[in-house]
Task: structure prediction
Amino acid sequence: MKGVEKFGALDIYVLQGDTDLVSRVSRCFNRVDVNVIPIDDLTVAPAATAARAAVAVIAMSAVGSSAATLAQCQRASVMPVIWVGELDASGERAPRADLHVLPSAFTCAALGGTIAKLTARAHAHESDTPRASPFIAHSECMRALLHEVDMFADCDTNVLIRGETGVGKERVAKLLHTKHSRRSQGAFVAVNCGAIPDGLFESHFFGHAKGAFTGAVSAHEGYFERADRGTLFLDEIGDLPLHQQVKLLRVLEDGAVTRVGSAVPMCVNLRVLAATNKDLPRLVAAGMFRADLYYRLAVIEMYVPSLQERGSGEKIGIFRSVIGSLFGEELLATLPDLPSWLTDAVANMRFPGNVRELRNLAERIGVTVKQMRAWDPQRLQALLAQVQKTQAALWLGSPEHPRWDMADRTRVLDALATNGWRRQDTAQYLGISRKVLWEKMRKYHISDTERVRA
Ligand SMILES: Nc1ncnc2c1ncn2[C@@H]1O[C@H](COP(=O)(O)OP(=O)(O)OP(=O)(O)O)[C@@H](O)[C@H]1O
Ligand SMILES: [Mg+2]
Result:
């Protein structure tokens, strides 16, 4: 969608009130590293992290439309807020510059532009500190991956890390960096290759000398220099346009960079880790990715399995760990263990957004349980149903997935409701076999948690 491709990983928390804001926002984003998360309460949404920006989009109908009310709500938020609706400006002397308001009939481009402005963030971040959350690897395939990490960490060979979105490719890259005895002393510089504006590639990667162009008031180190003696992590490498690929290749071959506006080349000592969720050999075959760059980056290839491949034990392990980290000792001691209906529901859910999506769900459930101090089935099932509805909206918005026949989905849902969600009766009612009904429910992401909506 136009206007919304400018930023990297992003969480959009949506408080929709009585509007259909969640699905409208979801439809604006085809990018997989953008999560649209429905919330009921602005104060429970977690703040942005170093790796992910966060923004709230709130329907005015949920809180009120006077500027004073909005400003007051906004102060309670830990992240920038975009208000959707018609501002009631009567009684206000001047429009408030601190409120970002979109009309109810906003376009995706306007939404994207406002988000980009509010989340204006560097395209790269440096970090030497490991993330607080533990890296969970219970399944056999993940243990095998950790074994590979151990084997290849302490060498300087470039590694290409492949895997679906949200599986933990950046976490694996960080592990490779921190386990490297020498390089872990240097910086880990992560660059989102899909978010580098054309025309700024050189100054971002090579840096620039003072006065190199209008506005270059001081000299600036590029990513290559910052990662010197450390690790350069090229995230979303499959999104790097061809004309930028050739510039990257030259540095990887020569090991030297020259700042824009300078004539003096500098040698850099880099280990390059790259990650992608795309099929690079296919891009190479299609002429969209340079073969020479591919071979240089993929000296070693590592594959991070999807959550589905890891099995339900891993899903529950991650879910449990995130929830446990949210609860204090006292709550952990007083609350009964995770109920089996909840672990079963999580085990049976599919997570196209992989670990990231599962973590988000676990955080939302954890925060809710913390507030209620109980595993309230009604509340939590409603939350699960809401998540599945969003998954469905995202699925619908994605060009990579076949469009659902919404009329058929509604027909199946109605039939289930009419027949008390009994599969046999519903199948008979629709004149199809139980197997076909089951397939339709799977395809349309319909599960028992949807009952709560009714
Ligand atoms: N094995 C794991 N244990 C615990 N948390 C994990 C694990 N793997 C990933 N995560 C968490 O899941 C989220 C996504 O991880 P990460 O950013 O590394 O994925 P990615 O594959 O790089 O995603 P993308 O394709 O969107 O760039 C992060 O919050 C990360 O901390
Ligand atoms: Mg990543």
Observations:
- Residues 431 and 437 are 10 Å apart (CA to CA).
- Residues 1-5, 121-131 have pLDDT under 50 and may be disordered.
- The chain has four domains: 10-118, 124-305, 310-397, 404-454.
